[in-house]
Design brief:
GO terms for molecular function: peptidyl-prolyl cis-trans isomerase activity. This is PPIase cyclophilin-type domain-containing protein. By secondary structure, this protein is α+β, with helices and mostly antiparallel strands. The protein has a single domain, classed as Cyclophilin, CATH 2.40.100. Strands 3-4-8-5-9-2-1-10 form an eight-stranded antiparallel sheet. Strands 6-7 form a two-stranded antiparallel ribbon.
Length: 240
């Protein structure tokens, strides 16, 4: 851990406690620094007022800066959140995997969503442009922008293929569990009618799936920032 950031949580407007995250900036520099900069508001925006929209049996997920924009264009997120997309995070994950040094999504891990593993491939579409027909590819949904994050309150290996671990909870895991105990919309993905609707591309199934595991309560980060910095290197220096 190189430095700590704090996330003050509120549930339906009532204070729920503080979560302190220790960052791995030496080991996961791209991801950890991006998370730290947003939490500290160093780019002009932060996780303040951003909500936790997904709660599963072993992790909670924050929506990040999905809707932030000054002009309605994606480049605003690039300017203020450290990157237009999550390609740098995905590249870092690959490098750490090759060296066997990538942290895993174990209990207490904090990770940034870098890859959308469930995104279907782009669909070809024939359009007319300048009097000629050409094929363009339409994406079903945008790729992760590298600002959404998850906090695991139990081991969550299913996040390893998609999420870059940037730190761990050093204080406040009880607060995370309090969030996790909130009542949520029932996950109905095993329902035969839902599975059939999704298979045939029914848009109602897509809309319904987005609501699964969503808490009924409004859970937001009421305040966040840098808690303090420290480094074991200082001890090494003093011992010389």
């Amino acid at each position: 851990v190189t430095r700590k950031v704090f996330l003050d949580i509120s549930i339906d407007g009532e204070p729920a406690g503080r979560v302190v995250v220790g960052l791995y900036e030496d080991d996961v520099p791209v991801g950890a620094r991006r998370f730290g900069e947003i939490a500290a508001g160093q780019k002009g925006v932060s996780y303040r007022k951003r909500d936790f929209y997904k709660i599963t049996g072993n992790y909670i997920q924050n929506g990040g800066l999905r809707t932030f924009s000054l002009s309605g264009r994606a480049k605003d997120t690039a300017q203020f959140a450290g990157g237009l997309d999550a390609k740098a995070l995905a590249s870092e994950m690959k490098t750490l995997d090759e060296t066997g040094k990538r942290p895993k999504n174990v209990k207490g891990a904090v990770s940034i969503v870098a890859i959308d593993a469930t995104k279907p491939p782009a669909k070809p579409k024939l359009i007319a442009r300048d009097g000629k027909f050409e094929v363009v590819y339409e994406e079903s949904r945008p790729d992760p922008n590298g600002t959404e994050f998850c906090i695991a309150f139990e081991d969550a290996p299913e996040l390893d293929p998609t999420n870059s671990v940037v730190g761990r909870v050093v204080e406040g895991l009880d607060v995370v569990r309090k969030i996790a105990s909130t009542r949520v919309v029932k996950d109905n993905t095993s329902n035969l009618y839902f599975r059939t609707a999704k298979l045939i591309g029914d848009t109602r199934a897509v809309v319904a799936e987005r609501g699964f595991n969503r808490p009924y309560a409004k859970i937001v980060i009421s305040q966040c920032g840098i808690l303090g910095t420290y480094s074991c290197k200082v001890l090494s220096f003093l011992s010389i």
